[in-house]
User: Which sequence fits this backbone?
């Protein structure tokens, strides 16, 4: 399974910050370089025709300055910084120029085992960090979570289990196996779980309940969720780069 870089509590743009003053008023604009992410999207490749990005359940973005997806034929969730430009076609909601893009660990949710044995998925605690990237949209549940990371290079294993509540098909559980790497510095990571195998909501918005083990006990968070819609094709996040530590 693919491993990714994980987040820590360091500003993305500590290397270079420029401040400009407006000519018309006393407002001050702070520019970050590299620019901070302004969206989380689904990168959707189109066979033989490049790719586009799904911004939300209803908005598609066409990149005018990238002919091919940097992730090949894989559909992934990603952080992106883009700016809108003049529309170049009528197939997509908006045309954009991408300043930078960085993939998020993207993996399918897994059904709860019939025998109920979930030991391989671990029982180590995490915290869900309050952040704008936490969202259920376009058939994915994207989350920013926090846990302890030691300095020994152990790769953590995260999963989302479905079918954990026979009375509510829209209740899911975050599982974390740290493989004994439970001491060290608190750090953050992003993950996106594909949840298109959940029952179709038939266009309605329902409550999706996320259950997880935190450092202070069991917790739940609810999200508004509507099943993925077909689309026709043609605050900030604090980040730091570390070695691959989560899969």
Assistant:
């Amino acid at each position: 399974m693919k491993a990714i870089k994980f987040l820590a509590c360091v500003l993305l743009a500590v290397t270079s910050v420029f401040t400009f003053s407006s000519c018309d008023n006393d407002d001050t604009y702070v520019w970050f370089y590299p620019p901070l992410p302004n969206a989380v999207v689904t990168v959707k490749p189109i066979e033989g025709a490049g790719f586009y990005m799904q911004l939300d359940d209803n908005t598609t973005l066409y990149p005018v300055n990238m002919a091919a997806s940097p992730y090949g034929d894989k559909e992934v969730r990603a952080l992106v910084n883009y700016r809108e430009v003049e529309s170049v076609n009528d197939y997509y909601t908006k045309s954009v120029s991408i300043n930078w893009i960085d993939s998020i660990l993207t993996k399918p949710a897994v059904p709860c085992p019939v025998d109920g044995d979930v030991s391989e998925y671990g029982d180590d605690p995490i915290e869900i960090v309050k952040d704008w990237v936490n969202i259920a949209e376009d058939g994915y549940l994207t989350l920013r979570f926090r846990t302890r990371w030691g300095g020994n290079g152990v790769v953590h294993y995260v999963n989302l289990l479905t079918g954990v509540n026979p009375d509510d098909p829209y209740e899911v559980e975050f599982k974390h196996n740290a493989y004994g790497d439970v001491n060290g510095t608190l750090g953050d990571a992003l993950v996106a779980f594909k949840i298109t195998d959940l029952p179709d909501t038939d266009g309605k918005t329902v409550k999706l309940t996320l259950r997880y083990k935190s450092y202070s006990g069991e917790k739940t968070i609810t999200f508004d969720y509507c099943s993925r819609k077909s689309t026709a094709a043609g605050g900030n996040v604090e980040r730091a780069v570390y070695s691959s530590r989560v899969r």
